[in-house]
Amino acid sequence: MAKLYFNYSTMNAGKSTVLLQASHNYIERGMQTYLITAQFDNRAGDGRIGSRIGIGAAADTFAAGEDLFTKIADRLAAGPCACVFIDEAQFLEPAQVWQLARAVDDLNVPIMAFGLRVDFRGALFPGSATLLALADEMREVRTICRCGKKATMVVRRDDAGNVLTSGDQVVIGGNDRYVSLCRKHWREEMGERQPT
Predict the structure, then answer these.
(1) Which option is the CATH number for 4-142: 3.20.20.70, 1.10.443.10, 3.40.50.300, 3.40.50.150?
(2) pTM
(3) Alpha carbons 179 and 156: distance in angstroms, whole number
């Protein structure tokens, strides 16, 4: 029976690497996969999922307002597909997450979504919140803070390296802009706790 999976973490935990490896495992066994990523996040190139360790693959893209149930149904009509992989799932709209759930239920295709759980302010992304509510299974992809504890939060820095405490929820960037931290060190960086 097909399921909707949500693999979540903070920045720089290796979500895209895990996605690409899982897709490769299907392909290695003679099965086809369907990779989709956010259209406006082109850090790895247009229509491409890339990992910080240098691996990548071509992908279809999703945009705001796009019907993902129809997109997946069209892909399945074009030929066999063993699994659908969604990268940057935090950028999904809540309605699009419901479309993914419908594709799992009605088209019987497993969907593995990979994304951030919270933004730099500690707030859930709307897509992630809906995935947390609807996913059949959730898995945390872990990374560590500078202190060695599990990182669950992320800070955003400006071009001068200053920590930002407000701003738009979505600003595309990588290691140059975001740092993953444990909650204690995130609170220190955000000015909510005095360093010990």
Answers:
(1) 3.40.50.300
(2) 0.87
(3) 7
